[in-house]
C-alpha cells in the first residue's frame, strides 16, 4: 500500500499569495463603468452599480467567502457554517483574519431561519456578494436597500461552474485579472493531483448521505462532486445514474434502507450527519452486506469534507484534494488493487 499523498493544507494561502502581482495590475475588465468610482455588474436580477474598489464586503455563502478571501479581500461578514462551533469552514483558516461577523443563512437540511437583516446592515457593507445564497430571490429587495447586491448570472446557480462563479465575484471586486490567475492556479493543482493518482481513473463510486429514513445518493452529473471526482476519471455507477432524481434540487436519488445494496461501487463514500450514525450503520446486516462495505472499500466522509466536495471553490477544491481524495480515497483504492 502506497502512503497517502496529501496536498499541503497551506495551499490556499499559497494560491492567494501568488496573486499579489495580479492584484496590483488588475484591469477594469469588460463591465461598463458609470464613473471612476463605480462599475456596472450584470446578474440574474438585472444590472447593479457597485463600488470600483469595495472595502466592506459581506459574503452570504461559503463559496463566495472563499473566492473573496482568495482574491485578497477580508470580508466583514460571512455565512456561518452550522456544523462548526466557530461557524467557519476549515479551509478558510489560513487566510481569514480576525473574526468576521457570522451570518446565519441556514436552509436546506437544518432549521430554516429568517435572514438577520439588522446584523447585516450594522456591518455597513458597501457590497453584498450572494452568488450561492439559496433565498436571494426572497431577500434581494431588502438586501439591496442595505448595499449593492451581486447575485449569480443565472437562476440555476447550483450548476454554474465554479470558475464562472469566481469570475462573477472577481468582476464585482474589480479583480478580473487576479481571478483568471487564481482559476489557472487551481486547475494546475487539480492537474498535478490527477497525475499523482492515476489509479483513480476508471474507479466507480457512490457518494451518499445517510438520512433517518434511508439514503440519498448523488446522481447529478453536473453536481460539483461529480465534476471534481470526474477530473480524476472516477464515475458514478450505472445503478445510481439510472435512479430517478428526487426533484428537490439536491441532485440526488433516494434509496430505502432495504435497498442499501444499490449503494455498492468500487468505493462507497458515505456521510452521516447523525452522531454515531456510522457505528449504527455498521450494526445493520443489510448495510454490512454491501460488497464495498464488507470488503473495506468504504470511506466515512465527515461533514466538512462533504461540504467542500459539493461546494466547489478556489479554496475548497484544494481541501477536497488533500483531505478526501489523497487523504482517504486514493489510499483505500490502492489498498484494494
UniProtKB/TrEMBL annotation:
Residues 56-333 form the Fe/B12 periplasmic-binding domain. InterPro entries: ABC_transptr_periplasmic_BD, Bact_iron-sidero_bind. It holds the Pfam family Peripla_BP_2. Keywords: Signal, Transport. The keyword Transport applies. Residues 1-28 form the signal peptide. It is found in: Cell envelope. Belongs to the bacterial solute-binding protein 8 family. This is Iron-siderophore ABC transporter substrate-binding protein. It comes from Rhodococcus artemisiae.
